[in-house]
Each structure stands twice: as structure tokens, then as C-alpha cells.
Amino acid sequence: MHETQKKILQLSSSYNLSNLKLREIGKLIGSPHPQVVKHHLEQLKKKGFLKVEPTSGDISAVKPGEISSKRLVSIPILGNANCGEATMFAEEQLSGYLKISTSILLQNLLAKTKSLFAVKAYGESMNRSSIATNMGMTKNIEEGDYVIVDTAVGSPKTGDYVLSVIDGSANIKKFVNDTRNNQVALISESSLDLPPIYIDSSMNYLINGKVVQVIKAPKYK
């Protein structure tokens, strides 16, 4: 995130930005150009970091897991995750908010929206996965889909889909705890012939959470 945007967000915790002129905001954050301030304000609104109340016009920062008056849940987007080889760097930087209707989000997730985050999937190694939906059906994970991850699930079980970070690279895989061979296997479910990733306790890896829902990328054709 741009440094000016960080300063504006920090300012929004102490001020109602709608009561300040662009020049006043600029003075408070050390940016003397009103048009620069305006640009970054618009970017923060576009990315979902700031919200404008429709009746009062008040401007304030969006909180993770917040449910708006229009029944939209704001889920933070934390970078990207690979559905292929472990090559995509796991940047845990807030890049915006995914707005999801409460009728689309799985009902059992509505009570714990603050523990959720989203990543955008890249690659096709999970295009035959089966993630539960509201209708009792399943969805796979394809490139461009948003994957919702729950950080409050605890230790993963065999068969769970997880977001793992291995040597700084994020991956979405199926978790298998192979106790007989004293190893963990991260399995691809794909139309491609891809080998598992095998992990032992000496490796630098982290399970960030369990995949709990997939928001499919729109299809235009």
C-alpha cells in the first residue's frame, strides 16, 4: 500500500474525513497537494478500505469481517496463493477487501467473519478439488477464483484443504497427515499430473488456515 494511503487510513481512526477539506487532510499527513490526497482517497474507497455512509456522508475505515447495512461482508484480501508449484511468494499484505453478500457466504461462517481472509488462486493444480457450498454441492478451485480461508479452525485434519506457506511461498493443497511415514503430504487435485509436496518437521512451513469456501471468478462466455 502507498505510504500516503497508510497515513490517510491512520488519520481516519481519529477524524471523520468527510469533515475535512483535502488541503486539511494533506496538512495532517504531510502531503501539500490536494489532488494527490484526492487520488489516494479514491483509491482507498475503490479498494474497499474506506466506506462512505449513504445518508450522512461520513467516511470511515472498513473493519475486517464487518457486515454493512446492505448485508455485505468485508473480507480482507491477503495477496495471492499458488495452485501449482511452490513458487509464488506469500505476501501477507492487505491489498483490499472482498465484498460478499451474506446470502452467498456459507451460513456457518457468518458468526466468525473476523477470522476469515481471502486469497486469489493462481494455477490449475486444484481444478478437481471439491469445496462445499451453501447448496450442498461442491466447487473446484481454478485460476482467478477467490479462496476464503479460516484461521480459527485449529490443527488441520487429513482431507482438509489448507493454505500453507513453504519457504515463503503460498500454496493451496489437500492436507494428508501420513503418520505411518512420519510426514505430511500436500496433495494436488488436478487434471494435470502433479506430484505431492512432502514435508517433515525440519522444513520451514506454516499452515495459515483451512479453505472453507470458494468464490468463483465470473465467466463471461
TrEMBL record:
InterPro entries: LexA-like, LexA/Signal_pep-like_sf, LexA_repressor, Peptidase_S24_S26A/B/C. Residues 76-212 form the Peptidase S24/S26A/S26B/S26C domain. Transmembrane segments: none annotated. It comes from the Bacteria. Pfam families: Peptidase_S24. This is Peptidase S24/S26A/S26B/S26C domain-containing protein. It comes from candidate division WWE3 bacterium.
